[in-house]
Amino acid sequence: MLGPANVQAQPSAAPESAPAKPGKTTPSGPVTEVAFEKYALPNGLEVILHQDRSLPLVAVNVWYHVGPANEPRGRSGFAHLFEHLMFGGSRHVGAEFDRLLESAGATNVNGTTSWDRTNYFETVPRQHLELVLWIESDRMGFMLDTLTGEQLEVQRGVVQNERRQSYENAPYGPSTLTLLDNLFPKGHPYHGAVIGSMADLSAATLEDVKGFFKAFYTPSNATVAIAGDFDPAQVKALIQRYFASLPARPKPKRVRHATPPLTSAKRVVVKEPVKLAKVAFGYIVPPAYGPDEAPLEVTAALLAGGKATRLYRSLVVDKQVATEVDASLESNGLASIFGINALAASGKTPEQVEQALAEALVELEQKGPAATELERAKRRILVDVQSNLQLLNGPGGESGRAGLLQRFNHYLGNPGYLSELMASIERVSSADVQRVVRQHLTPSARLAVITLPAGEAKP
Fold it and tell me: How many domains does the chain have?
């Protein structure tokens, strides 16, 4: 629920220490509200401010509302490529980005790309906030001034090598690509991986890249969130100084049409140089923050994530057909992805694993979860939310208070969605779980990707 997997540009430093009082709490303790102020500059830039003076730190988190969902056909991977290019320098900062932030004691400096957005974030001692705002404004307004064909070639090579390390040459990486290629049809923005295809990355020209920047890296398509120890009047003056002069450009249109689920079951077999077979189920489910999101998130927590969960008890402990199990909901704007994975135990066939996964889903749909089981799953999710709120900027830029304010704003236009998110989890009933399994996780809407050790016969 808190966000999809991200493709990251650089290794992330350790997140900052936890502030003591991140927002409004109930008498029993959990944070139920993150106070914020939201406004916009005349050029369209959105600003979200969250003040917390418990530690002398400030987190800056910039979201550009662009990802693979916005990429032109034949230009996959542009959003992630820009994630790398934006660290390469700009007119006034030059190539000193890393050195300046390191000298300021910055932590958790990174950028990530998901299907619907690209972000850049860092946390610094409060006295260095102005430095960060200058850097972020310079690359928002003047990155193209220093971009050269040589820089493009360098970062193109970095991204292509990252793809090889993450997918082509990684255990079960080709299977992951196969799932993404088959879950969404060709031409769909989510077809393939966020990182893009080798062919599209190779074909990108300097003019293509400049055109993409001018279309999407504009103040009207960006949101700056600042969380931590600051004086609101001073911060607003700094934002006015560094961002208000950036030229206004038309706000790009958001792609918002939902993607329907698969209409028939698909099954694909992939051979890889691995020792153990793996079974992965993929489903297209409704977009982020719809009415079924909370029940689907609870369903994922019921299925996997601990030794007391259904799939672990059934496949690993009782039937002993698997050694690892996982279930997740990746929430996105055009469609969310519900995934279930199981790594076969030595000597067990993928057919045995596949059948055990299918049986577990049927049992959950027919009988529903027990009251204690349901409550345990909900508590796990809510504890994760509370843990997130202890950070100003969390890993990936979609967690921590700045990241959550950004995520809620991006998908809902309402940074203050936290209390409703928590309430929606609390409201999930056993019948809700049964309904979403019956409606969304059906055999007829399932993509099954079977990974076989190279040399084994296809099942």
Answer: 2
Residue 16 is classified by DSSP as P
Enclosing domain of residue 343: 266-453
Q: Are residues 231 and 290 in the same domain?
A: no
Q: Say if CB 326 and CB 341 are below 8 A apart.
A: yes
Q: How many CA atoms lie within 13 A of 319 on its CB side?
A: 23
Question: Could you give the CA distance from residue 288 to residue 93 in angstroms, rounded to a whole number?
Answer: 37
Same structural domain, 149 and 103? yes
Rounded to whole angstroms, the Cα distance separating 330 from 338 reads: 6
Hey, is 45 helix, strand or coil?
coil
Enumerate residues 6+ apart whose C-beta is below 8 A from 446.
262, 265, 266, 281, 282, 283
| Residue whose C-alpha is closest to residue 297's, from 329, 343, 322, 321 | 329
Residue 18 and residue 94 share a domain: yes
Q: How many residues does the chain have?
A: 459
Measured CA to CA, the distance from residue 311 to residue 212 in angstroms comes to 44
Measured CA to CA, the distance from residue 225 to residue 348 in angstroms comes to: 49
Residue 303 has φ and ψ, to the nearest 5°, of: -75, -40
Are residues 230 and 313 located together in one domain of the fold?
Answer: no
**Which amino acid would we find at residue 74?**
G
Question: 40 and 160 share a domain?
Answer: yes
Q: Is 87 helix (H, G, I), strand (E, B) or coil?
A: coil
pLDDT digits (tens, 9 = 90+) for 367-384: 999 999 999 999 999 999
Measuring CA to CA, how many Å separate 148 from each of 72, 151, 319, 412, 429? 22, 5, 58, 37, 56
Tell me the pLDDT tens digit for each residue of 174-209: 999 999 999 999 889 899 999 999 999 999 999 999
Task: List, in sequence order, every residue forming a beta bridge with 360; answer none if it has no partner.
Answer: none
The residues with which 110 forms a beta bridge, in sequence order, are 121
Q: Are 280 and 173 in the same domain?
A: no
Q: 145 with 277, same domain?
A: no
| Residue 383: inside a domain | yes
| Binned average pLDDT, 10 residues per bin, the chain of 459 residues | 49 40 55 94 98 96 95 90 91 91 94 96 98 97 94 94 95 96 92 93 92 94 98 98 96 84 95 97 97 98 96 98 98 97 97 98 98 97 95 92 98 97 98 98 98 76
Strand, helix or coil for residue 323: strand
Domain CATH for 166: 3.30.830.10
| Widest Cα–Cα separation across the chain | 68
Domain annotation covers residue 253: no
